[in-house]
Amino acid sequence: MKNLDRDWLALYPAALRQGLAAVVGRLGFPLYPAGGAVRDWLAGNPCRDLDVTVPGGAVACARDLARTLGGAFVPLDEEEGVARVVWQGHEVDFSDFREGTTSIEADLARRDFTVNAMAVAFDPEKGGLAAPYTIIDPTGGCEDFRRRLVRATSPGVFRADPLRLLRAYRFVATLGFRLDGDTERLLATEIPLLARVAPERILHELSAIMASARAALAVSMMEESSLLWSIFPELRQGEGMAQPDSHHLDVFAHNRETLRCLEGLLADPAGRFPGHGPEMADYLGSGRRAERLKWAALFHDLGKPACQRLRNGRITFYNHDREGARQFADVGRRLRLSREAIREVCLFIELHMWPFHLNNVRRKSGITPRACLRLVKAVGEELPGLFLLAMADSLAGQGPDKPPGMEAELALLYDQVDRTYRESIKPVLEMERLLTGHDLIARFGLAPGVLVGKILKGLEGAQVAGDVSTVEEARAWVADFLAKRLRGKSD
Known about the structure:
It is a single chain. The chain is an alpha+beta fold. About 55% of the residues lie in helices and about 10% in strands. It is elongated, with a radius of gyration of 29 Å. The termini are far apart. The model has no long low-confidence stretch (mean pLDDT about 95).
């Protein structure tokens, strides 16, 4: 028997604790905080949300608590007796004892993993945990927690819910635990069961893995068990596929290594981009960018198998970036990723070679403000993310023919593009246009269409380059452009 060190429920709002006590009083049966909250408390960490289990009537309990608190009632699975209450930033999930069991011990024994199969009794008299805060632990979760081990509660755990096959790796990624050997062997035999699971549920687990700091580790373990190929058969096409000698890994291993390198960069972007740490931290802290960058890293060379050619004895992958983006859009739709997420990941995949191409130009002749403008217009506010992906891609390729100093060059290139954006491009994009499409039509007799757009784009580039800064100069630039165009047609 192990006890918690305190009544962790005392950290929750009094109204929530009193509401739980009122529910227990009205319905007349015990209530047990269980699962993730108990695991967090055992680690000495507060937990904002609660999973509670009751002998029966969980949906009615949730509805009662929502009414008492003035919170939102969310039925999750009324047939299985699972519902949620959302109130002032807290989520309280109620569930019935599982599979018709009649005791908390039997319920816990039917959960997925031992570290998730612990509970503590609730004391309705004081609205807190029942002293001495004894952990109910029929499957040895406390000891497995101490050993940092993810272990199945029983041999039938994956057949009861095949999503647990993926959840095992989610716990590895989010908790930093390792898989029990017997559990790992059992998991490998049950992988075909995953085909029965809804894509939305699979996406929930994958998103938690990608949002963790150990996504690359989880992906490697999923590859070893072959679970990864069950979810993403497209990735397996890169397994064993040779690359040019600038690489030291096959296509799939390079994708996986790029993800690993990206996780290192996300932890310390300033380590490779000196002077840009704060801005990159701000960028990564917005939305779900880090998670989507990891998707892009794992899939950035997805298009290579379809584009591999042998030209003059050299392996090439021309247009693999566009093909990879096309393929990932299909993967994203299959997984039920949001349109925004698909768009953002596809953008990274489609543009991931641009920094390398631009760096080649910089080596030969330097880069112009116009070249920076084209990149900035293509990638928009995702410029830091694109360079983080490119840096991870470079770090993941360490073949004998790789140009020396590539990572330092990418950092210098980002510094130049970022500086050009701030000093030359951003002021132009934020200012009122010197000439509009209507101006071009009225002054130069042009018809609405592609030519007007081309002129406006060229004029924007001339402003960024410093060749044009006034309306008069803009008009002169357009007149010169049209004159050259006319001469070109007459030659």
